[in-house]
Amino acid sequence: MSELTSRIERLQWRVHETMVRLDLAHKREHIAALEAETLQPDFWADNRRAQAHMQRLTALREEVETWEGLEKQLLDLQELAQLLEEEPEADLEAEITRSLNATEQEVEQLELALLFSGEHDERDAILSIHAGSGGVDAQDWAEMLLRMYLRWAERHRFRTQIYEYNEGEEAGIKSATVEIAGRYAYGHLRSEIGTHRLIRLSPFDAAHRRHTSFARIEVIPDIEDAIEVTIRPEDLDIDTYRSTGAGGQHVNKTDSAVRIRHIPTGIVVTCQNERSQIQNREVAMRILRARLYELERRKREEEVARLKGEYVQADFGTQIRTVTLHPYTIVKDHRTGYETSDTQGYLAGDLDPFIRAYLQMQAHQAAAGVQP
Question: What residues contact 322, with CB distance under 8 A and at least 6 apart?
Fold first, then answer.
């Protein structure tokens, strides 16, 4: 058996195991059921619900079609590899190798995506960099990190937009904020939250001595999109009663006052100032909508604060990862233990091995019931 054939078979086994774990057979049944619902006459009566339904259907189709497509690609490559064993041909071998390398890379990316289990992992990310201890070296280090993350985003074809760029007095930056937009951008980058340390011979020291500098990375998901308040009729408990306030005999003779209780949140609003029940109901609904909006806004502020975590000074003893350029070259993650001597590749945006190691660590912790 040739080495190409062995690689193909190993990759086939990985794909098969993943397809079993994903239970694609059950997902095909789910797709059929969702497709049947779209054929109902009243499917588009609730436009918001229908759009959510179609998004779910599209996502399931893409997932199933992607893995089935990989399975077929590998079957085709296996047939070509068998043909190659019978009739060796350099061009065919090179073509199979290129296709297999691309397929392996795609499988690795898809396997990585399976590790994204956080509530906000699919969202865009807002990444902030702050220079810590180390003076000018720290500001230069912060700029190096910004360049590294921009190159990483470019590799993944994520869109980037710099919102803030606060230059240092002599070199580098004091801080920067950049939006990185693309599916699972936050899922990837949450592994970067914390203090990053650099050890090198300082280009800003006349004696060219070794310096240690720090920078702090903050990453939050982009959840600041417009807040939409949806009030479903079935979530409302509406009572009417006779007004007791100002308004004269007319108010007291009719059940014009309205009390609305929003069942999911327990919020209660009342209105009895208007002369008609319809007017009081409209005012009460406006008040309820405003209160629900404020409740959702507070929840989002609390969620952002939780995701940012407790503030930690970027200094000695707080680092999550260290880049050493002198007297040897190494990048080491102190949480996972993963390290590499390819510091240049790392600083050029090759972060995926570190991200993968962090996500795998979290997956193992979750399986073991350990809090990350």
Answer: 196, 197, 198, 199, 331, 332, 334
Please answer whether residues 100 and 78 qualify as being in contact, where contact means their C-beta atoms are separated by less than 8 angstroms: no
Q: What angle do CA 188, 196, 366 make, to 5 degrees?
A: 45
Cα 352 from chain centroid (whole Å)? 15
In contact, 124 and 222? CB cutoff 8 Å: yes
C-alpha–C-alpha distance, residues 64 and 66, integer Å: 5
| pLDDT for the residue 367 | 73
Q: Quick count: other Cβ atoms within 10 Å of Cβ 333?
A: 21
Of 181, 108, 5, 2, residue with least CA distance to 356: 108
Average pLDDT, the chain: 87
| SS (HEC) of the chain | CCHHHHHHHHHHHHHHHHHHHHCHHHHHHHHHHHHHHHCCCCHHHCHHHHHHHHHHHHHHHHHHHHHHHHHHHHHHHHHHHHHHHHCCCHHHHHHHHHHHHHHHHHHHHHHHHCCCCCCCCCCCEEEEEEECCCHHHHHHHHHHHHHHHHHHHHHCCCEEEEEEEEECCCCCEEEEEEEEECCCHHHHHHHHCEEEEEEEECCCCCCCCEEEEEEEEEEEECCCCCCCCCCCHHHEEEEEECCCCCCHHHHHHCCCEEEEEECCCCEEEEECCCCCHHHHHHHHHHHHHHHHHHHHHHHHHHHHHHHHCCCCCCCCCCEEEEEECCCCCEEEECCCCCEECCHHHHHCCCCHHHHHHHHHHHHHHHHCCCCC
The pLDDT, as a whole number, for residue 206 is 86
The region of weakest confidence among 130-139, 191-200, 290-299 is: 290-299
